[in-house]
From TrEMBL:
Residues 465-542 form the Carrier domain. PROSITE patterns: CARRIER, PHOSPHOPANTETHEINE. This is Carrier domain-containing protein. CDD domains: enoyl_red (cd05195). One of its GO terms (biological process) is secondary metabolite biosynthetic process. Keywords: Oxidoreductase, Phosphopantetheine, Phosphoprotein. The keyword Transmembrane does not apply. GO terms for molecular function: fatty acid synthase activity; oxidoreductase activity; phosphopantetheine binding. It comes from Hypocrea virens (strain Gv29-8 / FGSC 10586) (Gliocladium virens). Pfam families: ACP_SdgA_C, KR. It comes from the Eukaryota.
Length: 556
């Protein structure tokens, strides 16, 4: 297949973008075809518009693009002139592609331009496919026929802003640069000009993946990990010390009192790090200021980096949320970040705030979770941190567009953020657009998409028919929300018998309003009404029903 960013160990894409490799073709050969042929095909037929019986000059004809250009040009019976750099390549072009000897020129002898003119009765070539630079490019430009097309595949002269004879534009010649993106790899062997064909970058079992450089932590600096004695903070702290940090300060509300926290402090101390752990609410300005004073009194060096891992979840529907509920979630984020901003030195190397994808895409019950100095907010998906430690949160988030993250993946992102090469807000663990479309496509295939349901309701001849359609879609919606199989839900039982809570009821009510164009209360969904009668009530209130059904229902 051919697309951007293909050079990776694992690749996911639509099945329509893949083609089975024939048994007669190696994987390396298959990998070289797509890029080379797509580049040449685009150049010759979309840009140059090469036609039958026209003449074309192909430079570096024994290379991958050159041979592809020969094959494609021969398919439309164009007259082909080629250049090569070695005599051994000349025989290859004659034997393999049937190029006439008098149509082959040496690109290292600039007389090829005069030869092309001679062979075309001083007209020149209709199309020139150039991949060479310097004087060869200038000579090629001079031997293009009036109304001809010059296709430039090499970027060297474009980037170098090489001078050209502008008078040739009087002959209505088009100069077209084709820049097909690829992996930027310097192939010294290709630069030598001694290779025939294409070069494919491949990996084998014995190849080693280059080890990424660790972040250059200073041994004469403090690194603060706030809320770092639990969850993901412990992993970040261990990585920090493993990469040579020798002064680490922790803060958390309970302090180093839990077995996990005590074990972490002990392990880091044995590795040679000096650890200070404070029981402190860093959202409280005075408490945090006292912590910094204590650090200074202990003769610790200057603070050069800070990572805020602190968080507190207080999930509740917005209409029931108290001020204390609201503040409980924002204190560790907003107040703490503000205190860090005001109290930490201005020249820290990094200032990272861990957050959640809930702040990006929203989440039921989390309405409370939503100066320009260098800082980065990392919005983490499920799989690490508090979601990995609390199963009920993990199960709920998996129903949405969340993707699990491995601990090592998060640590790699943290290290990249420290280097300053990441954007101010780094979102990871959130489903991509392709994942979302794929999920919606599967729903559509199963027949419960909003468009299908609305079409059925508009065409319904009786209320019972509409209610049956709504019941099927309602069961599917509940099954997805509860993460159970559709077969496990019985339409003769109420939703509350399956553990549907107020948060799920709010989601289902929003779905009913959007897809069925009906309005029922969350209390109806949570009542003892079985799913089938509930579906009938929803259908009866739908504005999508034909007027005849609505009138009949009103008369009843």
């Amino acid at each position: 297949m051919f697309r951007l960013r293909c050079f990776r160990t694992f690749l996911r894409n639509s099945e329509g973008m893949f083609e089975k490799v024939p048994d007669t073709l190696s994987f390396e050969g298959a990998a070289s075809i797509a890029f080379v042929y797509s580049t040449v095909h685009y150049s010759l037929f979309h840009e140059a518009r090469l036609e039958r019986d026209e003449t074309i000059l192909i430079h570096a004809a024994s290379g991958g693009p050159g041979q592809a250009a020969i094959i494609l040009s021969q398919q439309i019976s164009a007259e082909i002139f080629v250049t090569m750099s070695l005599e051994t390549k000349k025989q290859f072009l004659i034997d393999t592609h049937g190029i006439l000897p008098d149509h082959i020129f040496n690109s290292r002898e600039h007389s090829f331009a005069a030869g092309i003119k001679r062979m075309t009765n001083q007209k020149g070539g209709d199309v020139a496919l150039n991949s060479l630079a310097g004087e060869v490019l200038r000579q090629t430009w001079l031997c293009v026929a009036p109304s001809g097309r010059f296709i430039e595949l090499s970027k060297k002269d474009i980037v170098g802003n090489t001078n050209m004879d502008m008078s040739k534009f009087m002959d209505n010649i088009a100069f077209i640069g084709v820049n097909m993106l690829s992996i930027k790899v310097a192939f010294c062997i290709m630069q030598s000009g001694k290779r025939i064909g294409k070069m494919v970058l491949s990996t084998g079992p014995e190849d080693l993946v280059p080890k990424s450089k660790p972040y250059p932590f200073s041994q004469d600096a403090i690194y603060m990990i706030l809320g770092g004695l639990s969850g993901l903070g412990r992993s970040i702290a261990a990585r920090t010390v493993d990469q040579a940090a020798r002064h680490v300060v922790f803060t958390s509300r309970p302090g180093a009192t839990t077995p996990h926290a005590c074990k972490l402090v002990d392990e880091l101390t044995k590795k040679g790090a000096k650890i200070l752990a404070f029981a402190c609410d860093i959202s409280n300005f005075s408490e945090f200021k006292d912590v910094l004073k204590t650090v200074k009194d202990n003769n610790f060096p200057l603070i050069k980096g800070a990572i805020n891992c602190a968080m507190q979840l207080q999930d509740v529907l917005l209409k029931n949320m108290t001020l204390e509920d609201y503040n409980a979630a924002i204190r560790p984020k907003i107040y703490t970040t503000k205190n860090l901003h005001n109290l930490l030195p201005r020249d820290v190397d990094f200032f990272i705030c861990l957050s959640s994808t809930s702040g990006i895409v929203g989440s039921r019950g989390r309405g409370n979770y939503n100066a320009g100095l260098p800082a980065t907010s990392m919005n983490l998906g499920i799989g690490v941190g508090i979601t990995a430690e609390r199963g009920e949160i993990l199960s709920y988030l998996k129903t949405g567009a969340m993707i699990g993250l491995h601990e090592q993946e998060v640590l790699a992102v943290v290290q990249a953020v420290m280097s300053g090469k990441m954007p101010i807000q780094a979102v990871v663990g959130l489903a991509t657009g392709g994942h979302h479309l794929e999920k919606n496509g599967h729903e559509g295939d199963s027949g419960d998409s909003g468009a299908d349901l609305q079409a059925v309701l508009r065409a319904a001849s009786t209320l019972a028919e509409a209610a049956d359609a709504v019941c099927v879609a309602l069961v599917r919606k509940l099954a997805k929300a509860m993460m159970v199989e559709i077969e496990e839900l019985d339409p003769t039982r109420p939703a509350n018998s399956y553990g549907v809570d107020s948060l799920v009821a709010v989601e289902v009510r929003a779905w009913v309003f959007k897809e069925v164009k009906s309005d029922v209360s969350a209390f109806d969904i949570l009542s003892n009404m079985p799913l089938q009668p509930l579906a009938t009530k929803i259908a009866a209130k739908s504005s999508l029903l034909p007027p005849t059904i609505s009138d009949t229902e009103d008369d009843a």
